[in-house]
Amino acid sequence: MCRRPDGGRVTVLADRRLRLRLRLSGPSRSLRFLPPTSFVLDLGIVVGAVLVAAEGRETFGIFPSPANVADSLGTAGPLVVLGWILTLLVAGCYSPNLFGAGTDEYKRVFNGSMVAAALVGVGCFFADYPLSRGFYFLAFAIGVPALLVGRYAVRTALHQARRRGTLLHRVLIAGSPAHIDEIAAVFRRERWLGYRVVGALTPAHYLEEETRSGIPVLGNSDDITSVVLESGADIVFIAGGALASASQMRRLAWDLEHERVQLVVAPSVTDVSGERIRVRPVGGLPLMHIDPPRATDASRWGKRLFDMVGSAGLIVAFSPLFLLAALQIKLHDRGPVLFRQVRVGHDGREFPCLKFRTMVVDAEQRLKDLHAQQGYEGGLFKMKDDPRVTRPGRWLRRLSLDELPQLFNVLRGEMSLVGPRPPLPLEVALYEGDTVRRLRVRPGMTGLWQVSGRSDLSWSEAVRLDLYYVDNWSMMQDLSILAKTFGAVFGSRGAY
């Protein structure tokens, strides 16, 4: 039980802990099968790559040799498989904490495979072993990409399972109630992470049974070890206000060193990409260095050159669609093909944003009536089954083809291929606080808002994603967003 400093009142938590343990026992323990499952999958991929390489050497005639090397492959093949798998094992590719998020898993698989390739090449050189060059090349040229694809498939299946509520980690969060709710909100939002918060541990002076977001308080921060063991938690997050000194953290690590429990320190840092964070131990003190926001980098010549080349190429590629859409719009009601709307761009500069017209000609005049009907109070206005949308406009919007003319905005430097959604002047006039940072970069045809739900997102969530993009811009992130855009567009998720 846990004693509270309120005149001797005792709160009994044993029954709640027991029910919690019985209800949640099982699912997260299945996570223990991830490392062996990945091992078996990697072994199958490596064996398959070696077999294909042995056959493909003769079929494709890569690095042909007059010598008969079939016998040497019979000996070298199993040794390559064994050495490759052992190298992946030594590289930590099957660590239980590796799966589910981040790029470290892919980096270890790739680096481990490269080390294996180097060891095989160097070993054959010093041993003067006649290993077929064609076999060597094909084995790693096929095997490395296949291993990465296999890991991606496992991660995709894991994320889908977590969104369905299985294969979850049981999590306790220790800290002040405000910090606990903040971390729990991230876990609820990013369900693919697989963190199910089962309880909270708060300072002794906090007397409530639940935090404001409804997380049950299972005890005091001083009781972390006992509550963890009784609740069967997999992970303990230590947030701000949990521990009074570094010695308490050290003792907690000692208490849990023989348990299957991860200890994670959650600093008061959110929406910062891993590229901006560096941890440097100094005198036994791990110091977290956070690089400045990257909004300035997103406005430099490299991104601009990428936008110019990309938009010009896409205009040429989509020219048949331009012609088809223009004909359908013109033939429908004889109105103008393009719709020009004033939007706010980089540093607050206004520009005419181009779109294929998808609404009736007097759509702007009908907007006030729709605002009144829908109870519009500010922010982005979108509604399903908008009566102003024309018949050609429905399929153009569903596939986001109405936005293709914005490629000319990109070419002119008013927009970017990737960036925050271009806002209306009315929206900008209502911006409060940090929202104005969305204007630090050129608005984009697509962005995190586009690939994360589009119109299904709330206004606050769309702003959060845009601010994350502005502060953490990178060219790799742009390429990733462009790749995901095709799935979001063709899946028609949140488009109306």
TrEMBL record:
**GO cellular component: a single term:** membrane
Keywords noted in UniProt = Membrane, Transferase, Transmembrane, Transmembrane helix
**Molecular function per GO:** phosphotransferase activity, for other substituted phosphate groups
Q: Where is the signal peptide?
A: none
Which Pfam families does the entry mention?
Bac_transf, CoA_binding_3
- Taking the first listed entry, what is the main subcellular location of this protein, grouped into a coarse class? membrane
Q: How does it sit in the membrane?
A: Multi-pass membrane protein
- Compartment(s) of residence: Membrane
Every copy of the Bacterial sugar transferase domain together lies at: 303-490
- Segments passing through the bilayer: 33-54, 74-97, 109-129, 135-154, 305-327
User: What superkingdom does the record give?
Assistant: Bacteria
Protein family membership: Belongs to the bacterial sugar transferase family.
Tell me the protein's name.
Answer: Exopolysaccharide biosynthesis polyprenyl glycosylphosphotransferase
Species the sequence originates in: Nocardioides marmotae
